[in-house]
Design brief:
Blueprint lengths: L10 H5 L3 H4 L4 E2 L4 E2 L10 H17 L3 H8 L6 E6 L5 H12 L3 E5 L13 H11 L2 E6 L4 H10 L7 E6 L5 H14 L10 E5 L6 H10 L6 E5 L8 H10 L2 E5 L2 H4 L5 E4 L35 E3 L20 H19 L3 H11 L2
Parallel strand pairs: 3-4, 3-5, 5-6, 7-8, 7-10, 8-9, 10-11
Antiparallel strand pairs: 1-2
Helix pairs in contact: 3-8, 3-12, 3-13, 5-12, 8-9, 8-12
Bound molecules: phosphoric acid mono(formamide)ester.
């Protein structure tokens, strides 16, 4: 548990902490709820289960006009800022949709070249300005740990607001991991849930922030086994493996995709993240043996799922899309529901939503 408030810790002290040590500072309600959503490590198993069930309630309530109207009246008096300093299709649109679902008005800056950063304003000052106008900041930024820095910075101002990390550098994409967990939970609801399942991560695991965040969330489930399947140059970093070792999670590091496919319950494909290349090094790595082709559907378990955070390039053949085990388009839709649930939970609206569900939907 934390001994001090975030504004009582210097930035220097804070940066020296591990993600697990920082996590309590992002929580509220005796550590049971998110105030900020910044790192995967802050989400405990009970928190994940609560968010997934809330997402299902929101999804079902939103099926009627009355339900939509109820949801939209939850946060009609609040505003959100969507600050995306890196390109995005899904995360931006699903947060925008989630805000509309729960009635939050949205403002946005989708390109730093349209903000006063071009006049020399620091990103910190720019985002502090957003906090003057809004009640929630949802941000994607190329610098790892930048969302945490903003949460710390605002805790030292007169107007701290919750921060949601919508993707930071190569390190974290916690809300993608939440939607991935929600998709896995829904996919496995009739076969014992996520506990005991085998999940393979494939592709660029070194620079894929979605993999890093999801690997940590999966460590909350008992008996899971993770496979990291990639060329040696793009393998998962040792810090994640050290965290899995500490959590007692079983894993294998492999480059033999064909061997792993029939063994697992979920395959999580990723694209090559060449936006981080320094010298076009990705072009010198042969990744074709890590593509999921339609022939592999024959050896995949009948109740397994194929996932991808998207965008994809060639790593999943489009012919795979019509197989019922391909759930990447369902992930996109699930993102809207779990992000709606996260926002409602941050603003303490979850109890009212559960009550409405029990009275009007169940
Ligand atoms: N999955 C994901 O983060 O997609 P976008 O980059 O399009 O937001």
């Amino acid at each position: 548990m934390k001994e001090k408030a975030l504004n009582q810790i210097s930035w220097d002290q804070f940066t020296k902490m591990s993600a697990e040590e920082k996590s309590p500072y992002f929580l509220t309600g005796n550590g049971t709820k998110s105030y900020h959503a910044l790192v995967a490590q802050q989400f405990s198993r009970p928190m994940l289960e609560e968010l997934c069930s809330l997402a299902t309630y929101v999804r079902r309530i939103a099926k009627t006009r009355e339900g939509c109207s109820f949801l939209q009246s939850r946060l009609f008096d609040k505003r959100a800022m969507l600050y995306f300093a890196q390109p995005s299709t899904r995360t931006y649109l699903s947060f925008d949709s989630a805000c509309q679902t729960v009635g939050l008005d949205c403002m946005n800056v989708r390109d730093s070249s349209t903000s006063s950063e071009v006049k020399g304003e620091s990103p910190e000052d720019t985002i502090r300005t957003f906090s003057s106008y809004t009640d929630l900041i949802i941000m994607r930024h190329p610098a790892g740990g930048f969302a945490e820095r903003i949460a710390w910075l605002l805790s030292n101002t007169g107007r701290p607001v919750p921060i949601i990390n919508a993707g930071s550098g190569k390190d974290q994409h916690p809300t993608q991991a939440l939607l991935d967990i929600y998709t896995l939970e829904r996919s496995f609801e009739n076969i014992g849930g996520i506990d005991g399942k085998k999940v393979a991560f494939v592709g660029d695991l070194k620079r894929g922030r979605t993999v890093r965040s999801l690997a940590w969330l999966l460590a909350q489930y008992s008996g899971v086994k993770l496979y990291f399947v990639a060329p040696p140059e793009l393998q998962i970093k040792k810090d994640i493996l050290a965290q899995l070792d500490e959590a007692g999670v079983s894993y294998e590091v492999s480059h033999d995709f064909e061997k792993v496919i029939p063994e697992v319950n979920a395959i999580y494909m990723t694209r090559i993240q060449d936006e981080w290349d320094i010298d076009n090094e990705s072009t010198r790595i042969d990744t074709t043996q890590f593509y999921f082709t339609k022939e592999y559907l024959n050896v995949l378990k009948k109740d397994a799922v194929i996932m991808h955070p998207l965008p994809r390039r060639k790593e999943i053949d489009v012919a795979v899309d019509c197989d019922p085990r391909a759930v990447y388009w369902r992930q996109v839709r699930n993102g809207m529901w779990i992000r709606s649930a996260l926002i409602l939970s941050i603003f303490g609206c979850d109890r009212r939503v559960r009550d409405y569900y029990e009275e009007h939907v169940q």
